[in-house]
Amino acid sequence: LFSAVEMAPRDPILGLNEQFAADTNPSKVNLGVGVYFDDNGKLPLLQCVQAAEKAMMDKPAARGYLPIDGIVAYDNAVKALVFGAESDVVKSGRVSTVQAIGGTGGLKIGADFLKKVSPDAKVLISDPSWENHRAIFQNAGFEVGSYRYYDAATRSVNFEGMLADLNAAAPGTIVVLHACCHNPTGYDITAAQWDQVIAAVKARNLTAFLDMAYQGFGHGIAEDGAVIGKFVAAGLNIFVSTSFSKSFSLYGERVGALSVVASDKDEAARVLSQLKIVIRTNYSNPPTHGGAVVAAVLNNPELRALWEKELGEMRVRIKEMRQKLVDGLKAAGVKQDMSFITTQIGMFSYSGLSKDQMVRLRNEFGVYGTDTGRMCVAALNSKNIDYVCQAIAKVV
Ligand code: LMR
């Protein structure tokens, strides 16, 4: 049965974790996967999460099956966070939100549902994009192309190219957009440019699928989420996948969601019924713990305020590390201007290093980033930054 099964390549991101774990270099630094570590190199357990878990343990609850679409209080909290509790779109019942197995799960539920409603549509992802976008939509049965996004020569977004590609897309094309903190480049488009993207999506009758895995890591929770409101205001039916992996440091709990904006309440109910079939036939219903923790935090004003504070601290520390990286590279003798690192936003820096340089960093110094040159700035700290700067200086 398995004699012809080929060995698949390692995952370009999570595969690095396996290599990193096996590396015996005592100075090794993992800048591969998008995970935030604190200044001591520790994965944080947020205080708001601990407080919510303590309250849960004080009143232990049995674990029955959740509804197929997840915890009601969780889904409502996601709607409030992503669209605004008082927004017309939420109040009028036009948003269908389901709890998902991380942001990846939200993308997958959306992709499978889209394959039912738009079986012949093509999908466009940004060039470059998160490595898993292409695979998720291809595995859902779509042909996946790309729209221009990053211009290596100017180290910025090729916005004209992006817009031209959207305007040339066939009606019905599904366009995967990064709501904030573009992964992997760290370059977002401006609010005015979003308006032009929305106009193109509307004029060409495209389907926007917004991936928002880093809300709060750019400029703030509301600021990063503002783009969703713009799409809603334009009267578009959109998909939004969201994740609490990073913003709650709950990576292993796989807490995410998919929200779909329909035209009216009746349509939203029909959409929800179909999303539930996708979930039921894939994994039946979501797990309890992570969703319960996030719901407890978001629905309690004190814990919510604590979360916003802790998320803000993560955001600020990443920005400090960006500046330290620029300064450290200069001090280590790197001649080229690396100040672009501070204009990038979110967890990642697209360093511009070649695959060969990234492989050397890994093999000779135990500094892990993706082959595309992406480094997770959120894993730098005051103890490893000098070593990383020295290593980069030796390979560039
Ligand atoms: C990343 O891009 O590193 C993260 O989104 C983690 C992942 O699942 O790839």
Automatic annotation (TrEMBL):
One Pfam family it belongs to: Aminotran_1_2
Name of the featured protein: Aminotransferase
Entry's Gene Ontology cellular component terms: cytosol
EC number(s) per entry: 2.6.1.-
Family to which this protein belongs: Belongs to the class-I pyridoxal-phosphate-dependent aminotransferase family.
Keyword annotations: Aminotransferase, Pyridoxal phosphate, Transferase
PROSITE patterns: AA_TRANSFER_CLASS_1
CDD domains: AAT_like
Annotated ranges, domain Aminotransferase class I/classII large: 27-392
Essential cofactor(s): pyridoxal 5'-phosphate
Keyword Transferase in annotation: yes
Subunit-level organization: Homodimer.
PANTHER family in the record: AROMATIC-AMINO-ACID AMINOTRANSFERASE, ASPARTATE AMINOTRANSFERASE
Recorded GO MF terms: identical protein binding; L-tyrosine-2-oxoglutarate transaminase activity; pyridoxal phosphate binding
Single Gene Ontology BP annotation: L-phenylalanine biosynthetic process from chorismate via phenylpyruvate
